[in-house]
Amino acid sequence: MSRWRDIKHTEVTKTIDKTIVTETFVSISSRFKSFLLDSFLLTTPIVYVVMYLIMGDGTAFAENRGTGWLIILLFHMPLILILWKVKKQTPGLRAYDLILVDNKSGNNISFLQAFSRYIITTLSIISFFLLFVAFFRKDKKTIQDILSNTKIINQ
User: Fold this and answer.
1) Is residue 21 included in any domain, yes or no?
2) 3 state SS of 24
């Protein structure tokens, strides 16, 4: 009966070489709230700067939407990559006491992992159906977690 309660409360214990390791899975809702907070704190100011300071006004942005989004991604990507690599978290992850670590070692992620995670996250947002991978997995890992070999854990 205790195993059912552990799984129900998203805590699973594994026995590896007679040591007990406890893994807690971060809920999808806290990951989503973290993403929304990052969108408002980081992405929205970049969108406004590109839209009104670089491109002039909203109509110029609407006419050259592809160029505008490319400029936004060129500002957004280095910012997110630096935060993931150096601090292990963005402001949204920090607000919910979450950190981004390597899946196997639990240490800081490499630049290649951060870059691949960013690209896969962008593609999963664009293709929408990839966002639902976490709902079908017991460990609540998203497609970017799986392919970049990272995980989000509680701090």
Assistant:
1) no
2) strand
For residue 78, give both structure tokens: 């280095």
pTM of the prediction?
Answer: 0.77
Number of domains within the chain: 1
Q: How many helices (H) and strands (E) does the chain have?
A: 8, 4
Per residue in 4-26, pLDDT (tens digit) is 555 555 555 555 554 444 556 78
Residue reference for tokens 């990951």: 31
Beta carbons within 8 Å of 130's beta carbon, 6+ residues apart: 123, 124, 143
Q: Which domain holds residue 100?
A: 28-154
Beta bridge pairs of residue 21: 14
Give the DSSP H/E element, type plus range, for residue 14. Answer: strand 11-16
Whole-angstrom distance, CA of residue 152 vs CA of residue 154: 7
Does the residue 7 lie in any domain? no
Contact 131, 125 (CB under 8 A): yes
Q: Give per-residue pLDDT as tens, 96-147.
A: 999 999 988 888 999 999 999 999 998 988 887 887 888 888 888 889 999 9
**Which among 17, 28, 5 is positioned nearest to 139, based on CA atoms?**
28
With respect to residue 1, please indicate whether it lies within any of the assigned structural domains.
no
| Unique residue bearing structure tokens 């996250």 | 121
In a domain, 9, yes or no: no
